[in-house]
Design a protein that fits this description.
The complex is a heterodimer of chains A (550) and B (222).
Chain A (H helix, E strand, L loop, with lengths): L1 H5 L4 H4 L8 E5 L3 H13 L4 E5 L2 H10 L4 E5 L8 H10 L8 E6 L2 H7 L8 E4 L4 H26 L3 H12 L5 H17 L3 H14 L4 H13 L3 H14 L4 H13 L3 H14 L3 H13 L3 H15 L7 H13 L3 H11 L7 H18 L2 H13 L7 H13 L3 H13 L5 H14 L6 H24 L3 H14 L4 H18 L3 H17 L4 H14 L2
Helix pairs in contact in A: 7-8, 7-9, 8-9, 9-10, 10-11, 11-12, 11-13, 12-13, 13-14, 14-15, 15-16, 16-17, 17-18, 17-19, 18-19, 19-20, 19-21, 21-22, 21-23, 22-23, 22-24, 24-25, 24-26, 25-26, 26-27, 26-28
Chain B lengths: L2 H27 L5 H28 L7 E4 H11 L1 H5 L8 E4 L5 E2 L8 E4 L1 H18 L3 E8 L3 E8 L4 H7 L5 H18 L3 E7 L5 E8 L3
Parallel strand pairs in B: 2-5, 3-5
Antiparallel strand pairs in B: 1-4, 5-6, 6-8, 7-8
The chains are: A mainly alpha (550), B alpha/beta (222).
């Protein structure tokens, strides 16, 4: 450590990495390969090594243990690649910041694309890799991780303020620019999580001064500018990244978000198409299909939807929703026969409960209605309706709303669409577009404004009333109002924020009370799950910690 | 045979070879490994290197190599290459160890270079090319091999120098059994790697102080 502090160039070599205390997970579909990699790791002194032949199995292992190292083969099997696995882990937050993920690949070109993706591994090694080379790579990776350890620990604990402080502390004595860049990168991630756009730009500036070519810095600036609603600058920067590296997938995805904010949905669709072409994945096909569907481009929507199903079938990226989306596209294209096949045959393995049950019956009702079997359509719609509960999610209600409107039950239809908007939470914009599409498709143009307004208004009125009561310390009464709002939809973000705020004030005024404390914690945990890293939620947590002296 | 099938077969062979290598590597970790085991390991490595060189060249000629350009710290890059080199580890064919090191006193960096000691290239491709030169140098060296680089604003050159008998003798020492074709493969690979990095020059000559000097220049702007 002394050497790192002194900033000597060869400081890293002298920092000895103890492999015997590290745990590893090896994922490869070929048994002999797993065995070989395990032996190499054992040769370095690692004792705790688990092996897995496929991604599903690996996911189970990851549920019970966080590994220091994951060595994952790129060609896992036909339906899922190491890249898909990594994207899944990162997007579902299943990977600790402290885990080093290394992709093992036989294709040198894989790295060309993967390095340009948002979800890139910490490193990749080319097969065959002799033990000495693997060891040299891993030593560097773990030296980097050990250097960043205090900051990464704070990141894992979602304590982003501490992570920022730890990065500053780590950087202070360092002069080696690589180590500075590592720390600046983690610092910028923590600041982004805190939505501290002003300071994160300072961090990026500092990184730019060291190295003006690092793509993550440019990406970060573009993203921050977007968050600050400076869409022009964000767009210009994202385009610059693409001009330098036409395969930089994350830049296309960011551009799609920017275009979306500029209300240029055609442009967003084009960018999503480009990203799916460069690095195909079920997730990208899904997003592209949805974008096409909302634009009324049913042919394209259908192709991308089918690609998503084909690519994810049999893998952990498989989603029952994909069949729902495809069937709805088929119904809208006038192909009710195939929509029925999609749902009754292809998707028959999924249980007809909850969100899937409501949606499946609703879309089938539309298909049978189009096919002329109105009795069957009505029975299916009723079955769908019976499954609706207070927790039913917005897209299911949108499918049911569409079925009802198609069958001239406009009372049920408009009610469902209103509720879809009400319960849309952080998906409000997306659901609003879907509901709008539904109303256009069913000839309800004139009522679009009303439905969207009504959907947003009722809960907001209740929340507003609760807040007024809060200010006059009428906590019990405020609580009742909020419960009423949460009864309409249990996961409404505005209502949950008000609930958390109410309970914190309550605790402050009434002193510690186990019941109120438990509820406060529950609301905060729900919010943290629904809107991770939300600025307001973060400030609530800080307030809570101050109150309880934690 | 159609192209898809050939690709599949080659991929299979490459994987099988990698497995064989890993198994022989484990065998060579044992204290009681017989001489034959050591030789088999060495032969397996040579074979694998040749196959990979061949595949890389094939790709270069038929589909075009796409370099994955990243920032590389040159001294560290050369040190890692030496550390990971299996031929260095196994010693020369004469049975005594060859000392391979980065000759820091020979490194030259022009004053106008903005980021001194750092360059942008595909480290796997350049590593593969240099390693084939290193393997060759180790094979003919008497006791030591020196590696270094020179960096100008628009040129990066790598050098590998051995203290062996020099070029004419190298060629004379080659048996007709295919060693020369392996050297030819190595040089073609180096040429392909420089070509995808914006061009350059590869040469093998006798050094003024004796021994063979290999050099590989990449012309680049930055």
């Amino acid at each position: 450590m002394a050497n790192i502090l002194a900033g000597k160039q060869n400081a890293v070599e002298s920092e000895y990495v103890r492999f015997d205390s590290l745990s590893a997970l090896v994922i490869d579909d070929i048994g002999a390969m797993r065995h070989a990699l395990r032996s190499q790791l054992q040769g370095m002194g690692m004792n705790s090594i688990k092996c897995s032949g496929d991604a599903r199995d690996a996911l189970k292992l990851l549920e019970s243990h966080q590994y220091d190292l994951i060595l994952c083969d790129y060609n896992l099997n036909q339906s899922s690649s190491g890249q898909h696995f990594l994207e899944h882990l990162r997007s579902e937050h299943l990977l600790s910041s402290k885990t080093v993920f290394v992709m093992v690949t036989a294709e040198a070109e894989y790295a060309y694309v993967a390095n340009a993706a948002e979800y890139s591994p910490d490193d990749y090694i080319l097969k065959p890799c002799p033990e000495k080379r693997l060891r040299a790579r891993l030593e560097r990776l773990f030296e980097r991780r050990n250097f960043l350890m205090p900051a990464l620990t704070a990141m894992d604990e979602h304590n982003y303020e501490l992570a920022v402080r730890e990065c500053d502390r780590l950087m202070q004595p360092v002069t080696d620019e690589r180590w500075l860049m590592y720390a600046l990168r983690v610092k910028s991630e923590a600041q982004l999580a805190l939505h501290d756009t002003e300071n994160v730009l300072k961090t990026y500036d500092r990184a730019l001064a060291i190295r003006d070519t690092a793509p993550w810095v440019k990406m970060g600036i573009a993203r921050t500018r977007m968050l600050q609603h400076d869409l022009e600058t964000a767009e210009r920067m994202a385009k610059e990244i693409i001009a330098n590296n036409a395969n930089y997938v994350a830049a296309y995805e960011l551009l799609a978000e920017i275009k979306h904010l500029q209300k240029d949905e055609e442009g967003a669709f084009e960018m999503l198409q480009a990203s799916a072409k460069i690095l195909p994945s079920a997730k990208r096909f899904r997003a592209t299909s949805e974008s096409a569907f909302l634009l009324g481009k049913l042919e394209e929507a259908k192709d991308y939807s089918e690609s998503a199903i084909k690519l994810s079938s049999g893998s952990m990226a498989e989603r029952p929703d994909d069949y729902l989306a495809l069937a709805q596209i088929q119904v809208d294209s006038g192909d009710s026969a195939n929509a029925i096949v999609t749902l009754e045959k292809l998707a028959r393995k999924y249980e007809e409960t909850g969100m899937f049950g409501i949606s499946k019956n609703a879309i089938l009702a539309q298909a049978y209605c189009d096919a002329g079997d109105r009795d069957k359509a009505r029975r299916l719609m009723e079955r769908s309706h019976r499954l609706v509960t207070a927790k039913t999610d917005s897209s299911a209600m949108n499918f049911l709303g569409k079925a009802a409107l198609k069958m001239d039950n406009s009372i049920l239809g408009l009610k469902m669409l209103t509720r879809a908007i009400q319960s849309s939470g952080k998906e409000k914009k997306r659901i609003t577009r879907h509901v709008t599409r539904t109303m256009i498709d069913t000839g309800q143009h004139d009522k679009i404004g009303d439905v969207i307004d009504a959907g947003q208004r009722r809960i907001l009125v209740l929340v507003d009333e609760a807040q007024k009561l809060m200010r006059t310390a009428q906590f019990e009464a405020a609580h009742e109002k909020i419960n009423e709002a949460l009864d309409i939809h249990a996961e409404n973000i505005e209502a949950l924020l008000a609930a958390a705020q109410l309970h914190l004030l309550w605790l402050k005024q009434a002193g510690m009370n186990d019941e109120i404390d438990a509820r406060a914690k529950e609301y905060l945990a729900t919010l943290d799950k629904l809107v991770p890293n939300n600025e307001k939620v973060m400030s609530f947590y800080r307030f809570y910690n101050e109150l309880t002296g934690a | 045979m159609n192209e898809g099938l050939s690709a599949l077969v080659i991929h299979d062979i490459k994987n099988a070879l990698a497995l064989l290598e890993a198994e022989l590597e484990q065998l060579n970790h044992r204290a009681d490994v017989p001489d034959e085991g050591r030789k088999a390991y060495q032969r397996c490595i040579e074979l694998k290197n040749r196959l990979i060189s061949f595949l890389t060249l094939y790709k270069h000629e038929h589909a075009g190599l796409k370099p994955n350009i990243g920032e590389v710290y040159l001294t560290e890059f050369l040190e890692d290459m030496i550390d990971a080199s299996q031929s260095v580890a196994l010693g020369s064919k004469h049975g005594h160890a060859i000392e391979v090191s980065v000759a820091e006193d020979r490194i030259k960096i022009a004053p106008e270079v903005k980021r001194k000691g750092i360059a942008a290239f595909d480290e796997y491709l350049v590593d593969m090319a240099l390693e084939s030169a290193l393997n060759n140098a180790v094979r003919y060296a008497a006791s030591r091999v020196d590696i270094w680089f020179e960096q100008d604003a628009d040129r990066l050159a790598f050098f590998v120098l051995d203290d062996g008998p020099g070029l004419a003798d190298n060629i004379a020492a080659q048996s007709p059994s295919g060693k020369s074709s392996s050297t030819g493969l190595g040089l073609s690979l180096c040429n392909a790697v420089t070509a995808v990095h914006g061009g350059g020059k590869v040469s093998l000559s006798n050094a003024a102080e004796g021994g063979a000097l290999f050099s590989m220049e990449l012309h680049h702007n930055g």
